[in-house]
From TrEMBL, chains A, B, C:
Its EC number is 3.2.1.23. The lineage of its organism: Bacteria, Bacillati, Bacillota, Clostridia, Eubacteriales. It catalyses: Hydrolysis of terminal non-reducing beta-D-galactose residues in beta-D-galactosides. InterPro entries: Beta_galactosidase_Trimer, Class_I_gatase-like, GH, Glyco_hydro_42, Glyco_hydro_42_N. This is beta-galactosidase. It comes from Mordavella massiliensis. GO terms for cellular component: beta-galactosidase complex.
Amino acid sequence: MNENMLMFGVAYYPEYMPYERMDQDFAMMKKAGINTIRVAESTWSTLEPLDGVFDFHYIDQILEKAQAAELDVIVGTPTYAIPSWLAKKDPSIMVTNAHGQEKYGHRQIFDLLNPTFRFHAERVIRKLISHTAGHPNVIGFQIDNETKHYDNRGNEIQRQFLEYLKEKFETPEKLNQTFCLPYWSNSIHRWEDFPDISGCINGGLAGEFEKFQRKTASDYLAWQADLVREYMREDQFITHNLDFEWRKFGADIAQDGYSYGVQPDINHYEAAKCLTRLGADIYHPSQDDLTGAEIAFGGDSIRSLKQENYLILECQAQAFKQWTPYPGQLRLQAYSHLASGADGISYWNWHSIHNSFETYWKGLLSHDLAENPTYLEACRIGEEWRKIGHQLTGLRKNNKIALLIDNATLTAFKWFPIDRDLSYNDVVRWMYDSLYEMNLECDVVDVNGLEPDRYHMIVTPALYCASEELLTKLENFVTDGGVLVSTFKSFVANEYSTVYADTQPHRLHPCFGMSYNQFVEPGRTRLLGAKVKYFAELLKPESAQSLADYEHKYWGGYAGITRNTYGRGAAYYIGCYTEKHILKNLLSQAADDAGIQRLPEKYQWPLIVRSGQNRDGKTLHYILNYSEETQNVPCIWRKAKDLITGEVFHNGDTLDIADWDLKILEEANM
Amino acid sequence: MNENMLMFGVAYYPEYMPYERMDQDFAMMKKAGINTIRVAESTWSTLEPLDGVFDFHYIDQILEKAQAAELDVIVGTPTYAIPSWLAKKDPSIMVTNAHGQEKYGHRQIFDLLNPTFRFHAERVIRKLISHTAGHPNVIGFQIDNETKHYDNRGNEIQRQFLEYLKEKFETPEKLNQTFCLPYWSNSIHRWEDFPDISGCINGGLAGEFEKFQRKTASDYLAWQADLVREYMREDQFITHNLDFEWRKFGADIAQDGYSYGVQPDINHYEAAKCLTRLGADIYHPSQDDLTGAEIAFGGDSIRSLKQENYLILECQAQAFKQWTPYPGQLRLQAYSHLASGADGISYWNWHSIHNSFETYWKGLLSHDLAENPTYLEACRIGEEWRKIGHQLTGLRKNNKIALLIDNATLTAFKWFPIDRDLSYNDVVRWMYDSLYEMNLECDVVDVNGLEPDRYHMIVTPALYCASEELLTKLENFVTDGGVLVSTFKSFVANEYSTVYADTQPHRLHPCFGMSYNQFVEPGRTRLLGAKVKYFAELLKPESAQSLADYEHKYWGGYAGITRNTYGRGAAYYIGCYTEKHILKNLLSQAADDAGIQRLPEKYQWPLIVRSGQNRDGKTLHYILNYSEETQNVPCIWRKAKDLITGEVFHNGDTLDIADWDLKILEEANM
Amino acid sequence: MNENMLMFGVAYYPEYMPYERMDQDFAMMKKAGINTIRVAESTWSTLEPLDGVFDFHYIDQILEKAQAAELDVIVGTPTYAIPSWLAKKDPSIMVTNAHGQEKYGHRQIFDLLNPTFRFHAERVIRKLISHTAGHPNVIGFQIDNETKHYDNRGNEIQRQFLEYLKEKFETPEKLNQTFCLPYWSNSIHRWEDFPDISGCINGGLAGEFEKFQRKTASDYLAWQADLVREYMREDQFITHNLDFEWRKFGADIAQDGYSYGVQPDINHYEAAKCLTRLGADIYHPSQDDLTGAEIAFGGDSIRSLKQENYLILECQAQAFKQWTPYPGQLRLQAYSHLASGADGISYWNWHSIHNSFETYWKGLLSHDLAENPTYLEACRIGEEWRKIGHQLTGLRKNNKIALLIDNATLTAFKWFPIDRDLSYNDVVRWMYDSLYEMNLECDVVDVNGLEPDRYHMIVTPALYCASEELLTKLENFVTDGGVLVSTFKSFVANEYSTVYADTQPHRLHPCFGMSYNQFVEPGRTRLLGAKVKYFAELLKPESAQSLADYEHKYWGGYAGITRNTYGRGAAYYIGCYTEKHILKNLLSQAADDAGIQRLPEKYQWPLIVRSGQNRDGKTLHYILNYSEETQNVPCIWRKAKDLITGEVFHNGDTLDIADWDLKILEEANM
């Protein structure tokens, strides 16, 4: 793929088609400006119809026609769904999870560690990659698909986990002490007595196992990457579609849920190490509920893994009835991905599927396989990207705010919830969305990848698990002039979910200039007039200033928000969950402390601004209207050109942005 | 049973009685006018206390005393609940369903295909029928009881299913193509690789298995019928109590739910073939929630199976606390069954049970086994039926409207729901209840039994699965002058749930004069001022007229209801779910198009009119007041006599119908 | 323990501590006035780290330091949580319940009847008790912990249950008849055919099994008591912490639920027989939801088991965020326990736990292990008890009202619920809480322990199962001048849940002077203007007077509340569930009939008065303010002294009781 070109792609499954129509499909793709197809990731039973019998006729046909149509191709290893003959051959391949052993049928329900699986997966990967790597239109490989640990708790992973524990803790006594195993008589005194982890009631130990489960998933991806690397060309890439916590509303059907927050079942930071091109899948609410927040959150998360641009390998075309886009929304979404640092997008999928399971996760084409309003809007995007795509690739960010996320914390809150109606990702999104709506761009950084020097301000939503090492980093960050903004439930426990046995917030209480040792159900408590919800810590300021005390007969003597200067920096703490406008006021003040420039008031939700430098060093501002009303704002730049229309604006000129429309302003050089 | 007599019966379980009181029971029945008892269907462990040891003393006593009391007897084969010794003898008898293998205890949880079960069932059936068939008071036999497939997914049914697939599809490739099995690598390339169906994620294939499951249930009934036929007399009948989708409100207790819609677990049309007398079980809400709709829907469904009258083999007496009838309701219900074509009813059950499971599914007698208000109301019914029953039997209908129902569609929507809160039966009932409340009587017709020539108007609520053959029928129906009324989600897929890959509605879009290729969540959309709910197709009229466009900023350009003339007929289409009054307006117009006469406006809900011809060729009108207010309407017939009171009315006379009361008007001959 | 001293204790788990700090803990306890620690009940894996290897170094250290600190010690047998080596040694130890066999991890999930378990439990108990019984600071032993039957349905318990049935019923025919087993063909005709109880659908038989399950739990406690008795000194006691139905709100996390009502899984009356000191665990809502009702209900239940005082072995310190007490609440709770007859309390637990499972079930100390407001309030309690404790121990009650409770009924309603939203304990608490809020103190008496002579008034909330023997007792009670107050669903069935087959309420209908044979969903029914909810029996007064008829078009002819004089007494019956104020009016009248003196109107909720005689024969009145407003009432006693402040009040003086505060008035001798 040309680095000056935006990827405009689709997942393409001719094997799912009710009849052969590849020529017609490619012609319709070309009309829409589609330049890339992603193929083969679910084709194992097609490529290897019987054990050891390979048939690449199908893939050859795609590549031949793609070459003729000048389409780039990303080839996926076909391992996320196994053929039935393989499950028949060795039934132990099916994963054993909390519900017992799975039965064949669904994707992603086998044991990644199973030797039979690995043998056959390796064979089909080697066959496919060696067969396709030489083809000129193949630009890269996607290894597996949305890989996770599938809650594997079979014998093999438990055996390996025990070895891991032995190596890490050396003696049972150390293990007992780390996780408080004597509780309910769970301590062990020789390794042989280590029980089946499935019955575990120790939140810390179970969290350690979940961490190990995540590790098996990223190790598996690294293993695939090594295989692919043996065959691929230097100009090809290895990517993977990392995805996010899938938030369901309740129904156990395909048409339910969206990309919500931190992924619990694989660690993105570890998984990304083996990739040469970052990739992600992002799905989100639409129609009246389209906000762009998931696009931004997902993009900021993926980009921050390596401070690199990325590909959106899957995003929605029409999808479900509730996502069929309003006119303009498909285009707004596409540009929003670019505004976060994507170098292109790929729709899932080209065509709607006519049976099976995800029949109503509709593609660009409806089931009639003809043109439709959404397809026609894609044509407009394709046309624009052909013209200006080279100016939009490689957008670089220099964000001064880091929002810290942590898998261990996510797991810990499953065992020790803040409130039954408030999950870790709810707090992460409460914080992230507040920043997003204020047009304060941030990196979303895994705690293991934090480089504090890059930032002026670090934000920790409910960062429950924090190692001493991380705490040292954060303390030094403030001492050296940084601004730290933390919420309730930050710095409570160590990396094993063990609550620190001294003053809270552990180690950083001098930095925050306050401490607490009680927390309560808010009940009728208010803060700055707004209802407090879910949880409230009773903060006792020492050197800190209370920015707001609780309003309550008995908790009124405690602070809910504090600010402290410490070293050359400042530390804010909000001890409770409340309405977003209160959090935003706090963030405004913190951003000012951190010397981060904020846009004028008019530039705020539902008008979203995302900025960066393109490859030519030009500063671009994406101004995105996430509403059904036209928005008018004054141009605040000396001189800027809308890359889409060519129109030029000077400071004070009015920018009219129609419903679900956008502008991309390129600042003129001084 | 005398065909000039209405059956007035009870299910009678002396084996459940806390003490012997058959004489007393029969005396109380006689007082109430009860003329029929249904016995023995749950008595296997009583009749065959040990393997091969039979004891018919119990049944002999019933028959002897019934003869003395001049009660007709329907003998049930005792196979729906097996004795524990049989489950002990061959544990493989217990069915394996989605939850694993069932444990002995509940009824209807064994494998209908199990050879041990069949051997013992055959033996006890032969013994019982040969023992009782000669008795003069035995008027017929009920085979089994509310038979269904019990979600059987054991080895034997899976083996038979594979044979069925081989025969039907011949090659794995054809199977793959029919159901899109390559999806998620599920294709098979030799029959040996066909996996356990329990893990199946392919909606189409799973639907085919469910169809096969239903077939095992109707085949099993046919097998029982063949056995009974070897012994029964010519004047005896074979019946079965077909029942309906049981809609629960949430609690997993006996006192919850009612007969709601199309039965998912056996196909009535197939099952009815082996019966010589149609039978049904109908239960419904009562007290303030009594509407008669379930009585009418169930009756119209059963009668339409063969255009024959039927017996209500079970209906509620007192039942649950929420069903204990208001004064008048028991009687209103009884006549309502007749008004749909029943030749009598039988209460479940005679007496309340004093322990076990359905203790609070109360019978005519409460636990005190004494008279009570409900029993006394039954006495009134019995008295009236003794007098006028001969004028009410054999009511014939000549309905000009057919409402089409389909099991394959019901199954398909489990996999591909319209909305998580809108099931297939919800749409069926939305349509049926609208017709019912408008006093537009209809047949409820299985798609496999449709004879279009009988009708002027065909109604298809969400008829998702439609074979090309059915579509041809429907197109010809309209061409020939019929009126077709279809809703959203009709004609989307073929009989294998595979969505048609061309313009929607498939094949009939010229007939409807419109098409669509997008559908959406309604959100704030309105239609004719009313809220649209659950689902909306964006209809694009071509030759059709839009009867209403959506009211919405973005979907406003699309129609929500269309009407088209086609050939000599007309076709209506409503693309969304909305309030019933809008649907009723559409149905009014369609009925007018179809030349179907409607009653004056005053004759409408809660006043229900159901009509037909009795054996004497007289036209009867049941006028039923489903409310707690007296209703007054003018007589619209030249001259008519109330069969109950003998009162005569002329055109324009006022009919006063008290709360929960009724009249049966016999039109005078011209 | 000195009988003149109140126990002020904590559960203490040094084995859970993140670091060794016993000296510091004991010092902090002493400061707070803590005089007793409860230890060892979850320490099996610590005391016996490997099979047969015992290490009492840990327990020795505690005893040694406790002696130095002058702390009393209650030693718990460590059997409620087994070590993993034991589950490894014999996997059959893990209980098989409705969900299959449990996996090791959780506490209380093994088979109490398993011989391997019993062997090892006996060994460790003998070792521990023989090791500690001689220590001067050990005042008693707690056997096991919150023991229940764990829904054991494994092979051994089923074998024993069958033996029990054989012995009790002698023939299968008697069994069939008792439980109506012919229903659904469940009758058996030789014992060998008795099926696995897990599939049982017979509510009566399943109830008998549940009774048997409860028996295994109390038998097991008696077995432990026998072992302990072999070693203990005469001045030591055997206790156990009986607990209550744990009412959850929905989340399956530790921080959810509270002690609500009658315990379903062990029978307190049977279990208490082997104890020499009654004990209980009581947890309850707090903050705005603190009412004291659970403290009173639990206390009245436990005290009534033997008409003895008791120890609260567990109650909440800080516990969950929603229970962290308001200032004053911890102290109010402590005194409320005493006011019901407790001789002291013990917090669960001393310190919050830093990992594992109950991490947020916080102790007196927060995770920082430092002082906090709750700890400081405990110090105040300790200080006061040191001064006046000797005047508060051994409080004796002479309640004239008995509220009858029954385990069989509780089980029966699981099968035959009154309403899906109204459980047995809901009715018990509706009745109990009404009495409580009226300051009418009562005993809460198991039906098997009823001595009618003690009482003037007996109250039966929904006493569904009632043996003929009990009914005789109650009838005689009324005949002899007692007042009986019963609700709907009382006296319906016998002790096997078999509904009586004659006039309801069985046998007592002459006593109540009314009968009914229908009951209904209330719908829009009202009674005395208030909405009737869940359930309504249609009462037909004979000799009784209707105190209120239903307000409803059709049920208006029936009574909802009746009163009858019978013999020298009176019998009230309320046939439906409605608002508490209506029940309270009925109870007022009944109490007057019974000659029970009521406090003046001002002394009512939220002001709670609980009274008794202390060891010196002095009458004490606890006046407890369960609200955040100061309450003012006139002193109604001639002369009384507040034991806490020493202040003296005369008749008519104003008592000011601050929010969540209390007074303990000792009446002056005449």
